[in-house]
Amino acid sequence: MVRVRLKRTGTRNMACFRIVVMDQRSSRDGKAIEELGYYDPRKKEEKINLERADYWKSVGAVISPTVVDVIERVRSGKSLKDRVRKPVLSKKAREKAKAEAEAKAKAAEEARAAAEAAKAAAEAPAGEAAPEA
Q1: Tens of pLDDT along 83-101?
Q2: Which among 16, 14, 15, 18 is positioned nearest to 49, based on CA atoms?
């Protein structure tokens, strides 16, 4: 069975990948039938020959999930550089943010209650001073 998958190139801690067509039984970095493009996650660059990818898919090659994602991004014209990821907070940071939000909400509630009490105190004497008819 033929697969369209990634072949690792580059040095240690600086990985780069080629998008290749290989026999499923061959090793990851073995000889490829055809090279279709590349994917560099460090520089956030990717390029693939979509015509050849479509050809290999039409003859029954299985495409890996990562290569499917690359193909979709290239087809839509999106770049990896355009992706904005939400920062992932640690458990400790999430708890701290939650505690700060609760403290802020409690302070706002107390301020609102104090304002209502002051308003009620201001209205009470005015109501007593009004003449009764």
Answers
A1: 778 888 899 999 999 999 9
A2: 18
